[in-house]
């Protein structure tokens, strides 16, 4: 019996937030006012999507790490600019970084038990 893939809720909810933010900001003609927030949300969606691949043993740690680190860098940049919208990507990046560190620690523990 083949199981149907379940749509991960976190990327879907972040996509809804991205659509809402774009609709809100799209009337502003100055792209520099909001493009960093939209880029941060897109990177957070990609990182959480890559994270969901680990649930079905199809995760790519390099791409996940790339997106998670880019999200963290962009969130810190947004925070330094004083954007209040930086809190969602910053919190998401912190959670993704925690998952990344946990995966590394489990790999280290696995290698020690093999020796």
Description of the structure:
- The structure is a single chain.
- The protein is mostly helical and 115 residues long.
- The chain has four helices and no strands.
- The protein has helices at 9-25, 35-52, 61-80, 87-114.
- The chain is elongated and about 60 Å long.
Short overview:
The chain has 115 residues and is mainly α.
Largest sheet report: none
Average pLDDT level: 77
Helicity range of the residues? Answer: over 70%
Uncertain ranges: none
Q: Name the beta content range.
A: under 5%
Order of helices and strands: HHHH
Give the structural class: mainly alpha
What is the approximate shape?
elongated
Number of helices: 4
Counting DSSP E segments of at least 2 residues, the number of strands comes to 0
Termini separation comes to 38 Å
């Amino acid at each position: 019996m083949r199981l149907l893939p379940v749509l991960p809720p976190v990327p879907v909810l972040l996509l809804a937030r991205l659509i809402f933010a774009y609709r809100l900001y799209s009337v502003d003609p100055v792209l520099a006012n909001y493009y960093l927030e939209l880029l941060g949300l897109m990177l957070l969606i990609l990182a959480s999507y890559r994270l969901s691949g680990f649930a079905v043993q199809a995760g790519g740690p390099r791409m996940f790490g790339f997106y998670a680190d880019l999200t963290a860098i962009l969130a810190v940049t947004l925070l330094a600019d004083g954007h209040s919208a930086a809190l969602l990507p910053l919190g998401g990046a912190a959670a993704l970084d925690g998952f990344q560190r946990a995966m590394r620690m489990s790999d280290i523990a696995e290698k020690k038990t093999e020796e």
